[in-house]
Amino acid sequence: MEIQTIDKLQKEALKKSSTDFLRLGFALFFMIAVLTYSFFSNGGVPNNLFLAVAALIGAYMAMNIGANDVANNVGPAVGSRAMTMTTAIIIAAIFEASGALIAGGEVVNTIKKGIIDIDAFGENADHFIWAMMAALLAAALWLNFATMMGAPVSTTHSIVGGVMGAGIAAAGFGIVDWGTMGKIAASWVISPILGGIIAALFLYSIKKTIVFKEDKVKAAKTYVPIFVAIMSWAFVTYLTLKGLKKIWPQVVEVLNFIPFISIEMSKKPTLLVALTMGGVFAIIVYFFVKNKIKNNTTTLENNKASVNTLFTIPLIFAAALLSFAHGANDVANAIGPLAAINDAVVNGGISSKTSIPLWVMAVGAIGIALGLALYGPKLIKTVGNEITELDQIRAFSIAMAASITVIIASQLGLPVSSTHIAIGGVFGVGFLREWLHIKDSTNKIIEKDQEIIKDEKLTLNAYKTELQALESKETQLPADFERIAILYKMIKDENRLIKSTKKHIKKTKKVQYVKRDAVKKIVAAWVITVPAAATLAALLFYMIKGIMI
């Protein structure tokens, strides 16, 4: 029996190791292909070796973004079993790559968030190239480590830390815009709190209007179309503001061909235009969903599980749209520094903004999709299963929080992280479940235990009074001594019962739907992301400088 067990373990280990080698092989093949293409396509450019190595690091960074950051978009949907892991990876990979290629933009800020002043480099393009390479590699290494540890962290904060650390190493502390860094640090608190509150509010609203009702099917017919319409409004607004801003002029040209639509040409969409577009889609979706549910409610059972199924399709759309917007925005974390290095090598100068060659954009898009497919499942499981238990309604609330929080924060000028918002949403629905458990389901248990304690205390006081009276008698009979002994035992038993009942109340209140170890690990990773990436980038800059000089 033991030999069979050992043989089975060996087979499992070999299977796992072969899978790991296969994944590593695909990753290395992609990075070597990028290195080779960059080297030979820029063969006539001086220092093209720097650009080729930078392209390899950019490919590595893009894969780490896919492995770590994309989990936030699809993790809740997978955890709620709205779709399988394979379906989630396919959908996310397609829409991440599409977002990066279609709406990633032709121009990006080479220095993410403007955290350092590139004028401090002067005309020294070499130091700038080394700094960007160090920043990119440091961010990628930190993301790789975080993924191995199962901690979803912000890729934006990783590259911000890398750029800051490399910039300080290259030109001193004066190069950093510390006001901007203060805002980024504030996002560590703002993002998860906003995401958690909004997710919890939506979950509570759905529970109050549908789940807690006796006739859940009737309530679902009324309120599910409203919630899905709100979701459509939020996502179209979010996608317009964050996913289409780089191709907005082309979008306006297409929309203006539609009769009765006239949108003023602008570089990027305004909030009013985005809200209007979202509102139009929301109205269409409301009537579509209402009609669909009206035809299907005859097959629905009057329970929560049945109501959950109504949110499955909206969740799949949410995962796809979040992935598209994420690809459009966060691809710059991988290709921004790479585009800066490309511009510096090809043109021999330093620019705060630069055009992105198609091959650089493709590196980011394909790298994100490949990283998700090869190494994404670990973080998807963490977000979907290992923080709190999710169902479709809870996952729907998290997706809502992800879109609405970004809309609110962007208009208020608050710096937020999409990673922190999504994880904050998971925390929010988990802690709401704990609160509702204490507030509702355990109230009867606690009240019953409290009544027991109250009755036992009355009995205990009666025993103590009788005992005191017997012990204060001047002349005690043998029967009195027997009664005193019995009273001492009864008082001891009453105290033991009261103590155990109090422990039961405490245990009942202490129920945890959010795994505290996961919370501590993730929050710790958030806090140290910027300083860890900065320190690593500074060390890498000095190492590159030492090699080159």
Description:
The protein is mainly alpha-helical and 549 residues long. The protein has two domains: 2-441 and 511-548, no CATH class; 443-509. It is built from 18 helices and two strands. The chain has a two-stranded antiparallel ribbon with strand order 1-2. Helix 2 (48-68) runs parallel beside helix 5 (125-149). The longest helix has 40 residues, at 2-41. The chain is globular, with a radius of gyration of 30 Å. 45% of the residues are buried. The model has no long low-confidence stretch (mean pLDDT 83).
Major sheet: arrangement of strands: 1-2
Strand content: under 5%
Count the strands? 2
Structural class: mainly alpha
Q: Roughly how much helix do the residues carry, as a percent range? A: over 70%
Shape: globular
Order of helices and strands: HHHHEHHHHHHHHEHHHHHH
Largest sheet: 2 strands, antiparallel
Distance between the termini: 63 Å
Itemize the secondary structure elements and their pairings.
Layout: H1 2-41, H2 48-68, H3 71-79, H4 85-103, E1 107-109, H5 125-149, H6 155-171, H7 178-211, H8 216-243, H9 248-255, H10 271-296, H11 304-309, H12 312-347, E2 353-355, H13 358-385, H14 392-412, H15 418-441, H16 443-471, H17 478-509, H18 516-548
Antiparallel strand pairs: 1-2
Helix pairs in contact: 1-2, 1-13, 2-5, 2-12, 2-13, 3-4, 3-13, 3-14, 4-12, 4-13, 5-6, 5-12, 5-18, 6-18, 7-8, 7-14, 7-15, 8-10, 8-12, 8-14, 12-13, 12-14, 14-15, 16-17
